[in-house]
Amino acid sequence: VQLQACGGGLVQAGDSLRLSCTTSERNFGTYATGWFRQASGKLREFVAGTNWRGSNTYYADSVKGRFTISRMYNENTMYLQMNNLKAEDTAVYYCAAEGLEGGRGETDFGSWGQGTLVTVSS
């Protein structure tokens, strides 16, 4: 599955930003999806995920209540709505897809987007 992430940019602390991830994969609706991020000098970490039906969403504690993962099945697009951004949210954000249920680990996903940079100034 080829994924294309976009929507990153430079914002101020407290601002909102929405990331998008699109694919031409016709069976995208049967995949679990997730968002990960990697800050400079750090390992890539889980941010948010949803199972293939969208009935189960889960978040890292650091973003819970501020970020929302969603999907538009008819558009083969997934989103990450990020509100009340903080300087520590600065990272390259990656979308991912694989399987039915997903997970919180990188190995739970086999397909990755190229990443989009989010920079939050304090």
End-to-end Cα distance, whole Å, is: 36 Å
Oligomer: single chain
Q: How would a crystallographer describe the biggest sheet?
A: 7 strands, mixed
Structural class: mainly beta
Nearest-angstrom radius of gyration?
Answer: 13 Å
Low-pLDDT regions? none
The percent of residues in helical segments reads: under 10%
Number-wise, the strands total 11
Strand content: over 45%
Order of helices and strands: EEEEEEEEEEE
Based on Cα principal axes, name the global outline: globular
Total DSSP helices? 0
Mean pLDDT: 95
How would you portray this structure in words?
- With 122 residues, this protein is mainly beta.
- The chain is 0% helix and 47% strand.
- It is built from no helices and 11 strands.
- The strands form 2 sheets. Strands 2, 4, 5, 6, 9, 10 and 11 form a 7-stranded mixed beta sheet that branches. It has a 4-stranded antiparallel beta sheet with strand order 1-3-8-7, with no helix packed on it.
- A hairpin with a 6-residue loop joins strand 5 and strand 6.
- The radius of gyration is 13 Å and the shape is globular.
- The mean pLDDT is 95.
